[in-house]
Design goal:
The protein is of the alpha+beta class and 177 residues long. It is 55% helix and 16% strand. The protein has one domain. It starts with a helix and ends with a helix.
Length: 177
């Protein structure tokens, strides 16, 4: 029994290191893109503009189905992040991140971003745009970001268009170049 526990602890430790490596890879890509003159929104568009329907295995999921699939991925790829699912209805779904977020976790969640020259604003803009672009492929609209109480909230609404803010940021960035 103790041997199994020790093996499980080693596996959990390795998985946590893997999830941290994945975070560094994603934040490193964002840092590189910003240094080359791209915005967080442009980098998100480059990475997440395709593949949602294949990943979801359903071209038009409900808001609840989508959120539950994302929650499954969060548990797998972000084992240190704690969240609560508040609602999984057909037209609306919602969760809040209680401890950490997809941009970092632990005592100092933003240490990895800072190490790569990123700000919280860079990471939040990238995260917001990534979810917006991904969900749009599934006819969903997503709002993600910190609320007034600084708790990050992910809301999913069935039937959605890309936000005007996202479109304008990509357009303005292209015009600058």
């Amino acid at each position: 029994m103790a041997e199994n526990k020790s093996r499980e602890d080693r596996i959990l430790l390795l998985w946590r290191k893997t999830s941290l490596g994945r975070l560094y890879l994603e934040l490193g890509g964002l840092s590189f893109a910003l240094k080359k003159g791209f915005s967080p929104e442009e980098y998100a568009f480059h990475l997440w503009r395709k593949g949602a329907k294949i990943w979801m295995k359903n071209p038009s999921p409900t808001a609840g189905e989508y959120l539950l699939k994302e929650a499954e991925a969060f548990r797998c790829f972000y084992p240190e992040v704690v969240f609560n699912i508040l609602k999984t209805d057909e037209d609306r779904a919602e969760l809040i991140f209680i401890k950490g977020c997809l941009g970092g976790w632990g005592e100092d969640p933003w240490r990895h971003a800072r190490h790569l020259g990123l700000t919280k604003e860079n990471v939040c803009a990238y995260c917001h745009e990534s979810f917006s672009i991904w969900a749009k492929q599934l006819n969903l609209k997503v709002h993600i970001g910190p609320q007034r109480n600084q708790i990050c909230r992910l809301q999913v609404i069935k039937g959605g268009e890309e936000s005007d803010l996202s479109k304008n940021k990509r357009k303005n960035s292209k015009e600058r170049r």
